[in-house]
Amino acid sequence: MIGAVLLVVFVLLLALDVPVAFCIGVATLAALLLSLDPGPAIATMAQRMLSGLDSFALLAIPLFILSGILMGQGGIARRLIDFAKCLVGMLPGGLAIVNVLSCTLFGAISGSAIAANSAVGGFMIPAMEREGYSRDFGAAVTAASSTTGLLIPPSNIMIVYAVASGGVSIAALFVGGYLPGLLVSLLLIAVCLLYARSRGMQGSGRTSLRETVRAGWRALPSLMLIVVVIGGIIAGIFTATEAGAIAVLYALALSWPIYREISFRDLYPILLKSAETTAIVMFLIAASVAMSWVLAYHDIPSQIATTMLALSDNPLVILLIINLALLLVGAFMDMTPAVLIFTPIFLPVAVELGMSPLHFGIMMVLNLCIGLCTPPVGSILFASCAIANTTMSRILRPLIPMYAALFAGLMLVAYVPEISEWLPRAFGLID
Amino acid sequence: MRAVVNAIDRIFRGLLALLLAVMVACVTWQVVSRYVLGSPSSWTEELARFLLIWIGLLGGAYAYHVKMHLGLDLLSQKLSPGARRVQARFIHAAVILFSVVVLLGGGLSLIGLSLELGQYSAALELPMWVVYLSLPLSGLMLVVYASLALFEEPGRPSPADGAAL
Predict the structure, then answer these.
(1) Is the ipTM of this complex over 0.90?
(2) A419 φ/ψ sector (left φ>0, alpha ψ -120 to 50, else beta)
(3) Which end of chain A has the smaller Cβ count within 10 Å, N or C?
(4) Nearest beta carbon to residue B27 from set A63, A379, A382
């Protein structure tokens, strides 16, 4: 009953274009007022919202947002693109593949998909257009491949999952994301190769070894960030939050005194943009934590778990149902509230099926990455359209093979736990 | 009226950037004090967490004003200008309802409770109502911004793009 009220109010408000954070807030409020004494209920809800933000782990998110924006402005993306061009530019469909690889490399130093999307897309989409690719295809490639940054560490959404799951190690999640992220990136490169072959597109000329080494040398300071930040976390030298602060200092040092791509005057807009993005994410987190508390109070997650486990005797089928449900959620909801609200609901089912919380988290993130590129709510989709100056309906067609690639990646990650678990185990981060 | 709102916005933006800068400085100082000076600072972590709460709640109100929150825009694209005005008013009313009841009402009762119990934070020994104050303040700002918008012509709907991680 309470669950139904929550769902109906949420969907109704969402359909009326109320911002998602307030849909969550009002739905939670309605459910609370139906079931509890109003005075204490409202105070508890306010308290939950506040305590949801009171977390040292979450502090990593604004830091990685800020370092991502600094990297996007600081010429770091350009150096990564130049390097990627030397490595894969000669393949058929070269520039599209350069786009995928650049997004992947950028994702390996920044924690957000949106930063990779604008930093790489802003340069690569026009460059691809000049070489005869349609602008819509360029925007589609950028959208799909920038999601790899959420799998490859550092990753803000993995931090959110670590908090929501109540205890999966951030270091293990970060390391576990590498192979799934690279897998998605390879699948997208395959799509680009097929696209180029069907259109008879050639790569750009081969670059000499000397040029490649030179581009690699120029990209090296940016790529060193991987060693410093992720290396430090894996070795247990510092926490993800401390690593975030180091990433900010490193990106600031590279883009300000060394590359001289930003000046003191640029710092204010960069700080403001980071604070705005942080606030939007944190406001969503506060509302989602309150909703998740109401769900738990009414024992709804365990009821859903019982229902789901009764649907089939076959764990593989239940896993597929969870994935389909998450794809639907991802189409309508932003990633952060989806992780916070649906982790407590689906994680117990997954554990019952024998999945590790680490494996489930990585699968969930990959699943919701697809949702970032699908209408009606897909922030990466919106951002790519804005950068390429095109419309959502026009980039959906070139996105179809990319959806297929992402879905294939999702199925592999869902049913082959080793893809997510082998690397963290090799580093001794899980047993 | 416009001038007053613009002035408040400017202060708000400055405050948000400042809070974030101080937060970054806190975590940085914590790293430096632990690894370079060898004596980890005890209060920077707590201050950084409280700043994050303030950025989240106050910034959430500001983000509503500048239409940065993520949401659908399918309905508003289909409506006639007259119907869209009604729809926009409904959205602002829903936001005002939430802000008054949960952020203002709930926030003020939390402040009352913490004054009654005399709660202080662990490291900084800051009275907890200072932290809780972010709730009613965010609620107040949201009510002001949404009320202003109630009497404005709705502009062209545009999907927000600021919310993705």
Answers:
(1) yes
(2) alpha
(3) C
(4) A63
